[in-house]
Write a structure and sequence with these properties.
Helix content is 24%, strand content 26%. A six-stranded antiparallel β-sheet has the order 4-3-6-1-2-5, with helices on one face. A six-stranded parallel β-sheet has the order 10-9-8-7-11-12, sandwiched between helices. Strands 14-13-19-15-17 form a five-stranded mixed β-sheet, covered by helices on one side. The protein has helices at 3-39, 150-158, 193-206, 227-236, 267-273, 287-300, 347-353; strands at 66-75, 82-89, 103-108, 117-122, 132-137, 164-171, 184-189, 212-218, 240-246, 261-262, 280-285, 307-311, 329-333, 338-342, 371-376, 379-381, 393-395, 399-401, 405-407. By secondary structure, the chain is of the alpha/beta class. It has three domains: 66-140 and 148-171, Beta Barrel (Elongation Factor Tu (Ef-tu), domain 3), CATH 2.40.30.10; 184-311, Nucleotide-binding domain of ferredoxin-NADP reductase (FNR) module (Rossmann fold, 3-Layer(aba) Sandwich); 329-407, Beta-grasp domain (Ubiquitin-like (UB roll), Roll), CATH 3.10.20.
């Protein structure tokens, strides 16, 4: 055999190895595709069935505002920017149970505000008959165009043990079925850990054997919330897979002790760590994380019925609405003297983008803070509001224009 023939045989062998490697890779991706398609009950080549629309929400556990007393407040992070508030009803009556993931709506008398502010904060531990808990992150100023959060700073600077706050009953659509046996993935960014920590505790209490994966991303150890509690849960439950990610670890943060991965929580991390199982995904975090991760999960093949999420702060991530009105409808905000053409998103987003000041709270159709009178025209809703809307009004956070529209804003 000549040297030239030997070289050709070597090259041929390398080429065959490359073909085998590519074939194995394709086969593995095909198996992943089939597994994820099976989550939605669809066969290859068939469309994923649309989830059934959610039924109208149940009536709230109590009407209107109920007084709660702050019985404890506790710092939850090393930076001192996150604080929990334990709330007990002033009337002493037992509190109703509610699914983990719900939030409370507060009416706050904030110094310097012309009227009370309405804000919503997630329950950060499972509800008990004696108390609820919320955990609030201080929102600092971010330049002249983004002043500090009035409500969060009010909580940190003014709300003390013994103070009484006006609270609406737990509400929201983001919730975990604790009785279900299937595996679940929780993905949190920053203060988005609050509802997911409640879900985690409730899920493990209801079914200690349930497989749960938690991916939690923060900047560094100073910003981590519930760190000791999460470590203790992972120590007690072998089926809890805890993946803490620091995007910018501090000099005193130690890999393997304080965090598991350096970097952000993204689709590459999930695909690398997760086995192929019919997971339900629950995601909560800042807008940037949600905007990148949710489409990536859908592209990976996670069925819409298995993808549950909630954005916090001003972020709004609405699901597509079947039969949505055509873009270009004119909306006039009468008191502000502003006219804008609606293209997509909610009327609340349109108002904010047009410089129209509108009060808002939950941004989910639960608190009623953005209720606005309709002077002319009609609106449509992307989902049934929990709040009972007054006749002739709409909730801007869920509403889209059905026709040309004039609003009292």
């Amino acid at each position: 055999m000549t040297a030239q023939e030997l070289l050709l045989l070597i090259l041929l062998g390398l080429f065959v190895q490359l073909l085998v490697y590519a074939g194995v890779g394709f086969y593995r991706h095909w198996l992943a595709y089939l597994a994820l398609r099976q989550q939605a009950g669809a066969r290859p080549g068939e469309p994923v069935p649309e989830p059934e629309p959610a039924p109208p929400a149940a009536a709230p556990a109590w009407p209107g505002w109920r007084p709660f007393r702050v019985v404890e407040r506790r710092a939850e992070d090393r930076a001192g920017q996150v604080c929990s508030f334990l709330l007990a009803p002033v009337d002493g009556q037992p509190l109703p149970a509610c699914p983990p993931g719900r939030f409370l709506t507060f009416r706050l008398d904030v110094e310097g505000a012309a009227k009370p502010l309405v804000r919503c904060y997630s329950l950060s531990e499972p509800a008990t008959p004696a108390h609820y808990r919320v955990t609030v992150k201080r929102v600092p100023a971010a330049g002249p165009e983004r002043p500090p959060g009035r409500a969060s700073n009010h909580f940190h600077d003014r709300v003390r043990v013994g103070d009484v706050l006006a609270v609406q009953a737990p509400s929201g659509h983001f919730q975990l079925d604790c009785a279900a046996p299937g595996p679940v993935v929780l993905v949190a960014g920053g203060i988005g850990i609050t509802p997911l920590y409640s879900m985690l505790c409730a899920a493990l209490a209801a079914r200690p054997e349930r497989e749960v994966w938690l991916f939690y991303g923060v900047r560094d150890g100073r910003e981590m919330v519930f760190g000791a509690a999460l470590a203790a849960l992972a120590e007690r439950h072998a089926n809890l897979h805890l993946h803490v990610c620091f995007s910018r670890p501090g000099t005193d943060d130690v890999a393997g002790r304080d965090y598991r991965h350096a970097g952000r929580v993204d689709i590459a991390r999930l695909r690398l760590e997760l086995p192929l199982k019919p997971f339900h995904f629950y995601v909560c975090g800042p807008g940037a994380m949600m905007a990148s991760l949710l489409p990536a999960l859908a592209e990976w093949g996670v069925a819409e019925a298995r993808l549950h999420y909630e954005a916090f702060g001003p972020a709004s991530l609405a699901r597509p609405v079947a039969g949505a009105p055509a873009a270009g409808l004119g909306v006039r905000f009468e008191r502000s003297g502003v006219r804008a053409d609606w293209q997509a998103g909610s009327l609340l987003e349109l108002a904010e983008a047009s410089g129209v000041k509108v009060e808002s709270g939950c941004r989910l159709g639960c608190c009623g803070a953005c209720q606005t009178a309709i002077l002319a025209g009609e609106v449509a809703y992307e989902q049934h509001p929990e709040y009972e809307v007054e006749a002739g009004s709409c909730l801007l956070c869920l509403a889209r224009p059905r026709t040309e529209l004039v609003l009292d804003a």
